[in-house]
Design brief:
With about 130 residues, this protein is mostly helical. The chain has a domain of about 90 residues: Orthogonal Bundle (Helix Hairpins). Helix 1 crosses helix 2 and helix 3 packs antiparallel against helix 4. The model has no long low-confidence stretch (mean pLDDT about 90). The termini are far apart.
């Protein structure tokens, strides 16, 4: 029996993928759509947006260096990043199945733990910089 060679199957033509400024525009549109969805559907993300918009003027009111301001604001942005990843995990799990399964629950719990740790980190950063 003849052996079949291993072939990589591409589901899309790499050469037809957008490049350059077109890729940047499409990526920006996709990101904007995702952020809009998050803001409309995730209360935790809305709360983190409020925290960000509060952190920015507070960081300017403090007598700190520009680097410290960036660290303070960056710590809040990091919490938002973790929230986005957590939501992505939840969406994928729900897309696979709405059936209750221990591994699905674990994946969601792990995503939640990531957000919790990022919140602790942000709190520590704010405490250290402000004190």
């Amino acid at each position: 029996m003849p052996t079949q060679q291993n072939k990589t199957v591409l589901f899309f033509d790499v050469k037809s993928k957008p490049r350059g400024i077109k890729r940047l525009i499409l990526a920006t549109k996709n990101s904007a759509r995702a952020l809009t969805w998050l803001f409309k559907n995730e209360s935790a993300f809305r709360q983190e947006c409020v925290a960000l918009f509060a952190a920015i003027p507070v960081s300017f009111a403090l007598n700190i260096t520009l680097s410290e301001q960036i660290i303070l604001i960056g710590s809040v942005l990091f919490v938002m990043l973790c929230e986005i990843v957590n939501t992505a995990i939840e969406v994928v799990i729900d897309r696979i199945s709405l059936e209750i399964h221990p591994l699905s629950g674990l994946a969601k719990d792990l995503g939640s733990a990531v957000v919790s740790i990022s919140l602790i980190l942000a709190l520590l950063v704010w405490l250290v910089v402000c004190l």
